[in-house]
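Protocol step 4 of 6.
Sequence for 50S ribosomal protein L25 (Fibrocapsa japonica) entered exactly as in the expression construct, tag removed. Do not edit the line below.
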Amino acid sequence: MMASWQLWNQISSLYKPRNIFQVQRRALCAVRADYVGVYQRIKDVFHKKEEPPPPTLIAEVRSDIGSRPSRRYRRAGQLPCVMYGRKKKERIVCSVDGKILRQQYLNRKERFENTIYNLMVGPKTYKVLPRQPAIHPVFPPVKLLSVRFLKYRPGKTKFPLPVKVVGDDESLAVKRGALVLPIARRVPCVGLEGLGYNLPDHIEVDVSNIKVGQKVRLGDPVVKVPKDIKPLVGDDFLLYTVHGPGRTTIFDEDIAGTGTAEGE
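Step 5 output, structure tokens:
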């Protein structure tokens, strides 16, 4: 259990006071104005729950392929699935428990495709990544129709990692009208041996101190690559460029050069 002074530091860290009197005053104002929010933060400090690991999915190999057999499996509570590997002979057509996979999809939501599952097919167990879950367009709230699994190998299985911009609300260049234009929205990566069962969500790019005309590359200090992730591109891989007012673009220089040549 956390001590009282540690809890006080947690509350005071939410603000930026100058002295202890401002800490007390702002803490009291926060309690009066938003008692529920402060209570929830204190509750999260004492009752911090870790996300349980994903369950092992037990699959049954099926030989019948098509829309009619798939509907028959869904009526029986099974979900049609296909596991793919690097080679064509590694393809396995199977079915898993639909209730377990649907609950995992509802709990993890956007992180569903970034979770490494153990798929047990007979005596063998494979590490897989769910891909392209097919969802019924009308049935409420969520009804999975099928899921594809990609066989995961540490250091070999490639997956794209999205690039996310942070700190744009604090950037002086952005406030003056500069635009941070994406060149590459995803970076091809592989996971190393120390990676757990959750893949990182994104690669962060901090643009709080960025300048007009600057080019952000993968090896720059403002780019934060997650731990146990190895990009498959070099450090000179271009991610973003910054354009804004008060700077001549290449297009303007070409027009100016063309006009001078015609005048001569």
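Step 6, annotate. Confidence is low (pLDDT under 50) at residues 248-264.
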